[in-house]
Structure formats: C-alpha cells, structure tokens
Amino acid sequence: MIFWIVVGWVSFLVLPWYGVEDGLFAFEWLFDGYPWDADYAPAAFLIAQGEKLWLTPLILPLVAVLFCLGRVKSDPVYAKILILTGAAGFCWVFMQGFGIGLRGWQFEWLEALFGPLGDRQFGMGFGAMLLSSAFLFLFTQGIAARGAINGDVFVVSTIGLVIAIVTIFVFFPIAKMLVAAFVTEDGNYSITVFASKFFDDRIWGLSCLTGGPRCGVAWNSLFLAVVVGFLSTALGLVFALVVTRSNFRFKRNLRALTVLPIITPPFVIGLALILMFGQSGAVTKFVADLLDMQPSRWLYGLPGLMIAQTLAFTPIAFLVLIGVVEGVSPSMEEAAQTLRAGRWQVFRTVSLPLMRPGLANAFLLGFIESMADFGNPLVLGGNYDVLSTDIFFAIVGAQYDQGRAAVLAMVLLTFTLGAFYAQRFWLGNKSYTSVSGKGDSGVHPLMPRRLAIPVYVLAAVWASFTVIIYLMIVYGSFVELWGVNNTLTFKHYFTAFSFSFVEDGIRWTGSAWDSFWTTLKIATIAAPLTASLGLVTAYLLTRQTFVGKNAFEFGTMLSFAIPGTVIGVSYILAFNVPPLELTGTGIILVISFIFRNMPVGVRAGIASMSQLDKSLDEASLTLGANSWQTFQRVILPLLRPAILAALVYSFVRAMTAISAVIFLVSAQYNMATAYIIGRVENNDYGLAIAYSTTLIVVMLTAVGILQLLVGRINIGRRSGLGSK
Amino acid sequence: MGDVQGSVPNEVGVDMGEMTKNSKAASVTFDNVTKVYGKTVTAVDNISIRVDPGKLVTLLGPSGCGKTTTLRMIAGLEMATKGRILIGDTDVTTLPATDRDVSMVFQSYALFPHMTVLENVSYGLKYSGFAKDETRSRALEGLQLVGLKGYDDRLPSELSGGQQQRVAVARALVLEPQVLLFDEPLSNLDAKLRRQVRQDIRDIQQNLGLTVVYVTHDQEEALAVSDRIIVMRNAGVAQEGSPRDLYEAPVDRFVADFIGEANLIPCVIESVTAQIATISVGGIKHQLDARDLPAGSALIAVRPGRVRLTAEAGENVIAAKISKATYVGNHMEYIVEAAFGAVFAMSDDVVNPFLTGQDVGLGFAESGPVLLPGE
Questions:
Q1: Which CATH class is domain B11-248?
Q2: Which of A625, A713, A724 lies closest to B153 in CB terms?
C-alpha cells in the first residue's frame, strides 16, 4: 500500500504529466527544460506555475490517503479512506482527461456550465498514467481491506487492473465505434439510418438459395466459419491423436509440421494456393494441359477460402487439443479398459467425452478465427464477400461509410458471441479435473484400430499437402516471376534484405529492414505482456469467485470476438485524440496485439487450469503462501505448457497479424505484414513471398528459443522421467 | 508413522523426541456459525462447537452433512456467512487461509506434482519466514517423523499412495500449526494401511500435543482416533461427546444407528420412578435409565453384542428363531427373527453355536440397551 502511495506522489511531483512527443521510451525530456517547460512538467510544477489548474483537486486524495498510514488493516476507517481517495482520484484523472481536450472543453454542456476555458491539454503521459494506476490500486486495496474476496489484495488488485484496462482498451473504443452506427451524414444520431443499414439485403439476402447471384455477406461468413470450424477441429484432433496416442515414429516432426501454418502470415497460404491452383498456378496449368481445357478460376471464392482457412487454423485447433488429449487422465481410460470396454469403446465413451471441452474450444476458435480472418479473403475472396473484408472496404473504399462498417461489425459480433455462449451451454458445469493432487502413473492407450487407420490417412494427406504448400512458398521466393519467367534468382531477397559493411558497422540497405525490426521489437514487447495478462485472467476466472464474474469473463473474451478490422478502426476513432493519444506510436500496436491475442492466453490458461485440482491451491494457501505466491509457485509451474503456447501464439500473432495492424501502422512504425500487403497490391509477389519466407524462418527460430527457455514439464511417470 | 515396507513401526516413538511438544496448539471455537452457499443452500446451520487445545476431535457424519464445510471454515477456505470463529483467543472469522496458523491434510493429498518430496514439505516453511537451513532441517525432520527418510528427491508420482499420504501429513506437520486439519485422510488407503496410519496419526497428535480436527465418515475410524466426536447431520450437530458417550448413550436413533450398529426395537415405557424406566418390549419387562423420557412409546437401541441368546425360552426372554448364523472367526453373527422383527446379534461362543432354524430365547444385557425417543 505504501508503495502505491509513493508511486502516486512521485508521478504527481516528478514525472511529466503529459505525453512526450517522442514516445514513452525517449528520455530527452529530462534535459530539455524539465521540470518547468509545460510540455514536460509534472503536474505539481504545472500547478505551481498557475497552469492547468484543473489538476489541483488531485492533491486532495493524495494527501487524504496519508491518513491511513499507521492504521491497521481491520480498521474500517482504513478501508474507507483508501476506497474514497482511490475512487475520487481515479475518476478525477479521467474526468478532466475527457472533459478537456485539444480545443478546450470537449462537451458543450461543460462550456455552458463553466464558460469558455481558453486553455487546452494533450494526451496523458507517464505521470497521469502512473497516478491513475496508483489510485486504482489504492482503491482495490481499500476494497480488499473491507473483506472482499477474503481480503485478498492480490486478487482484488488484479481484478481491478484487468477491468480497468479492458474497459479502456476494449469497451471504450468499441462503444465509440458502435455509436458511429447511428450517426447520419450530417453528424446527428438516428435510429432509422441504423435500421436501414442493418436490414440491408447485402447483409441478409438469401437470393443464392433461389438461384440468385449471391447471398448476403452475413450468411457467407456464417457458412464459411461453421465449415472451417468443423474441419479444423477434426483435423486438429486427428493430429493430436497421432502425436499422443500412436507409435508413429516421426511424431515429433509432425508436431513441428503442424506448427508451421501458425507462424505463417495468413495471406501467405492464400498466396501459395494461388501459386498452385490459381489461373496461372502450377497444378492448374498441368491439369489444363492434360485435359486440354481453359484454366479455371475455381479457387477464388468459397473453395479457396475453405482450403486456406482450414490450413491456417488447423494448427490452432491442434495446439488446443494436444493439451486436452494429453490431459485426459490415463487412469480413467485404464479404468474403462478394465471394465471390459474395448479400445474403441473406451475412446468413444471415455476419452472423447472427456475431451469435449477441448473440442468445443477448438471449434470456437476455428469459427471465430474464420469469421475474423482478413488476409485470406483479401487475397482469395473473389466474389465471395465476407464480413471482415466488407468492413474494411466500407471504411477504406470509395463508399467510406462508418455506419455500415459498424453495422457489419455488430452482425459479426453477434455471430461470434453466439458461438461463445453455445459452447458454454454445451459444456455445462461438467468438471474434467484430470491432474489431481495424486501423481498419475498411468499410460495412455493406443488408438483403436478402427480409428487409427482413417486418422493416419487423414494426417498423412493433410501433412503432405501442408509440406507442398510450404515448399511452394520457399520455391516461389526464388522465382523471377511466377508463371511467366520461371528462372531462379536471389533478386527478391537482395531487394529486401541487403546490407553492407561500412566503417562504423553494418548498414541495413534493404527495403524491408525498417518494418522488420519494428515488427520484431513490437512482437517481443507484446508477447510476454499478452501471455501474462491472459494467464492472470484465466486464473481469476477459474480459481476465484467474485461478483460479476460472468461480466468479467465476457469482457475479457470480447476482444477476441471482434475482428481485427473493427479493432483497427475503433482504435483510430478512440485514440486519435486526448486524453489517450496513441495513434502513430508503437504503443498502440502493442496494445492492439495484447487485446487481440489475450483471449487465446485466457483460453489456454482456463483449459489447463481447470485440469488442475483446486485442492492444490488450497493446500498452498493453508501452508501459509498467499494467493500471489500460490499463483507463482504452484499454478504457473504446472501451467508451463500453457504459458509456452500463449507466448508463442502471441508473439507469432503479433508478427503475422494484418487486419488491425493495417489501420494502425505509421511511417515510423511500419509492420512487416502491412509492408508485404503493400507489395502484393503492387503485384510484387516475388518480394512479398521472399519477405514472408524470411518471417517464417525468424518465427521458427523464436519458437524454438522459447521452447528451450520455458522448458518441458514432467508430471507423471509417463513423461519418462528417470528416478534418481 | 511406520514405514510400510517393513521397517519397525515403533521407530515413530524413537523419532518423536526430536520434535518438541507443540506449545502453540490452540482451541477452536465456533460461535453460532452458519454457512450458506449461493442464496439457498445451507451447508452449516447455526452450529456452536469447541475443540480444546491438544485434543483430537472428529467431525463425523454421512456425506453432505456439512462436516467438510465446517473443516474448510476452520482452514479459512470457506468464509462463514454468519457467526464467529475463534482459534485460541483470536477471532479469525474474516481471516483468509494464508493468514491462519492452520494446516490441512487433503483427501487427495494435494501434493504439488512438479515439486520433489522435500520441496513439498519445505513449501509452507519457506513462507513462514524460516531461513534456508532451518527450512531444510525441519523438512527433513518432518520426513523422518513420518518414516520417509531418504525419499527427499522423489516426485509424488514416484511414491505409493501410503507414502504420498505421509508426505502430505509431514507437509502439514512441519509448520507446527495451532490447529491441524485432516479431511478424510485415509479414504484413499487400503484397509490394513488405514489402521496403521490412523494409529500413527493419533500417536503423533498425542506426542506433539496437537489440536487436530479430523473429518471422516467412517465411524470405526472416528471411535479409534478421537478424544471427542461431533456427529453431524443435515448441517447441524446431532450429538457431541467422547467416543464412549456416543456409543453407549446416543441421543437419538440417527446417532445410535450411525455409530456402530444398533438394533432399534420399539418398546413402551410403562412407568418411570427415580429415573429408572420400566419398559415392555416384545412381551417382557426390562428396567433401564429413563433419560428423561416420559411414559409412552419409545425405542430401545441394543448393540449386537449386548443381545443375549439362550438355548431355551424362559423367564424374561422373548421367543425367537435363528434365521441365519454366520461364523466369522472370532465370533458368531446371528440374524434372529422375533415377533417385532429381525435382530442382529453377536456372540463370542464359537464353540457351541446356535444353528439356523433353532428356537432361542432373546434377552438383553443388564447394561447396554439405551432408551431413545420414539418416532
């Protein structure tokens, strides 16, 4: 508690209140007129100079909170002071932030109330940020002192933190975005405008069923997502089974192979498919020559999208399912075997039902990923319109219709949230605790033969297909001009990644280096933040009960259900102006990644945490460890696979994401994917593919390093640890 | 605790000297405590109990009676909805588990699968502020106490069930808590081991002078280990007392039936004089302690061992017939058919047993039968 009081005072007295132009990590302000220059001054110095006087009330809570020093925790006054000062301070920081903007008062009624202001303020900086978090944590400590969640400061504080940042970075922009759905062209609000946009035939039309040209974009997306969800779940299960339940000799390689598509920017698979099956694709040409017919464009549209997305999302399902398949307690399967069930019966009646939560998760992920996928529809969509790209075109296209984009986003949100609830309903309240406090010493049975044969076949076919796709990508990056001039060349790599040695080191002369370093930096910053936020949230959701937990879960998962295009647009709407002025910085990219990818960390965490028996936590608590120590010493070590998955996933996603990024990049912070898409638009396929290949290699290396760092975990004898 | 793999059980006694008597052992007091889950499910309904320092008290009852909830409220894993909980003289009602000086042995043992045996046992010590050396030496001492010397580097998964259980006990024990809790600690052990382990737990408790609260649904286990037993039913306390009290003077048919086996036979209290009731049962008269019951219909509870069978009908015996006779080694078990129903009886006479179908006279031992209120 004392820590946060100190932080509060320091941020008020020492740190610059407003955002520093050059970003949070530039420290020129220290030497440039600090502490008196208004741009860099801490709040206290501003007030002392008679500027920004609306910051003065903040002194009150900062002083008031000192009164609880020296009081004991159980003193009701202690809690009261903390709650009041925390809440008052936090609210004031934000009220003044939203109330007073670049052009003085932000709202007309404020102006009417107080008269013209004649002053203005910029985006919040270090000081404001830390001060508000100090107030937030003082507030949560007050709540904890009053006995919420057994007075657990760690839990209450984390809940407070997660709620605050999710509100700021998920609800606030989305609210801003949705308000746009009701805005007419002249800036007023209207329901009829909304209704006419919502019931548009382009969204809900069903004419394709009756032989018309095309169906509404909503139906298109829904159909595609369901199919892709099923296919990727089924294939993911197939691979998970081969890896965990078979004697297949190369299953380690298989593991690596299935990770490949994850580390690939999604549109790259689309590009590779074009290289093979496009109009001038290798296979298309071969077949056309063989059968002597015109090369067709069948790939563009539903078939292509289906193949590309299934290729792209099967590994995600696999990552989810492998934990689940491994998590099914062998002793249950062994029990079933001893109950005279054959291997097939065991699988059908015990293993499969126990995997059900995992299967549901995998399907949900596939469904939502497909709904939100932006890269593949952009490259392969053809005439098959889907929601995510339509949103994009509604905003960047000639029509520039924010309202329509918002309406499409709402439709999309409804679908994905619907999927989310259906899955929860289906799972019900079943508990699938598998790793109990007792060490498990069983061994997973092999797959029943009836299952094994089709599984092997499917796995083999899909694996070889994937291999071919990747070979095409690598090969394509060395080809001068695909389909026209097939000579091999290093030209693309030179253009992108050339460098030269000069006296003072290396000069990065290639055109891609800029975006490459930026991407690497941003992904490296975002990954651990994403993983920790996700896992902490998962911990709160599975291990703690508190009022409003369902709303909390909804909030944290919401950002996952929002397609990146919408995130991108809403972030621009919300964070272009004070108090949170973030556009054009690297921070907004990091933040967008954190909230885009956090739900995966949450899911992974929940899936593995619900397999850890709760008595482990309780044992730790009764042994005198507090909840933070329990989290750190008991939960985290047992979650290492989930942590790895979350880290890898968020790192890779940060490097490969395109949909939100395309709105948020700036000249200073350009990302690799945005750069590649730019090359694709210029028909510079060679460079685009060469760059993508490089990204894939880099990410493979990163994944490998992470795997080494996090290490493997041994729980049972089956993982083959030798006894000393 | 003795080593299952053949070491001498009384090594316990040898080791015991190394750990001093626990001077921290404290009482536990429940003051009108109620626990409601959600809005409607009352798990514990307004109970007041007291556990004296240095005693082993068992919470006994069928599943769903609220005994585990009670235990978890002592641990601080559940918070009381109403009422006060005291450990020693301190009010801990709102104190979370971390801050209570209580440790618990879980039914599932809850050993941390990713830590070795030694790390598991050291876990609580580390958070109690002991220095590294001290932590290690105490943990090793604890392991020795439970007879697991030399198992430090094993993982829980490399131990047998009994060994895991003892690690769990050691882990809780080394903290020398004010109160030690056991949540059905023997339910995952085989029968023979169970007798051994419960004896060991009792020995450790008595030697170290620990306050122990022990939850079980096994009445024999409860009778064997406890100083006092609290029988729970439907979220409340049915009866509290020493094992002998409960066995010999149950307050109602629930307790009589739950603690040991009892034949519940309807009877009529004909008269009460000076707290001695004269009852009529199955046509005979019998005199016993009235236990404040008025004249009228009642029940008597008779333990199988207190049923007297005689070869021929006679004075003050009920005519009955053996419907089943079973030889179980050290005694005979009979099902006897009388006018008021079947009676389960045991007899030490295995040399001249009654035969199935034989007519016998059924009577009751002088002390033994207990009057209970009727329906």
A1: alpha beta
A2: A724
